[in-house]
Amino acid sequence: MEIFEAKPARPFRLLYLNPEDEIKLAIDTNLYLDPGLMAQDLIMRLLTENKSLEIPLNRPDVKMDWPRRGFFVVDLSEYVKAMYAERTCVL
């Protein structure tokens, strides 16, 4: 069994998130050409200052487009918006 890991992501700060915004991650790879194999093998990890969310790509609620072989677009909108809402919630 082989283990593949992406380069570390560069963090960015969301100062304001419009509820109508779409947040999508484009993945261009020659390692995975089929969405089924990629979804079976990979997870996404979203981080805030104090919370981490792991999202297996094979979850039924993960929306992924496959416009061509080796190119995938994963919709992260609902996950990022939920984490943003928790982070900005004032008690």
Quick description:
Helix content is about 20%, strand content about 30%. The protein is an alpha+beta fold and about 90 residues long. The chain has one domain (about 25-90).
Task: Describe the secondary-structure layout.
Elements: E1 24-28, H1 35-41, E2 43-47, E3 52-56, E4 63-68, E5 71-75, H2 77-88
Antiparallel strand pairs: 1-5, 2-3, 4-5
If strands are numbered along the chain, what order do they take across the biggest sheet? 1-5-4
Q: Report the sheet-strand fraction.
A: 25-35%
- Number-wise, the strands total 5
Number of domains: 1
Please state the overall shape, judged from the principal axes of the Cα atoms.
globular
- Main pleated sheet: 3 strands, antiparallel
Query: Structural class of the helices, strands and pairings?
Result: alpha+beta
In whole angstroms, how far apart are the ends?
A: 47 Å
Mean pLDDT over the full residue set = 84
Name the helicity range: 10-25%
Gyration radius from CA atoms, angstroms: 14 Å
If helices are DSSP runs of H or I spanning 4 or more residues, what is the number of helices?
A: 2
Low-confidence residue ranges: none
Q: Which H/E pattern describes the elements?
A: EHEEEEH
List keywords for this structure.
3-stranded antiparallel β-sheet, alpha+beta, two-stranded antiparallel ribbon, 91 residues, 2 helices, globular
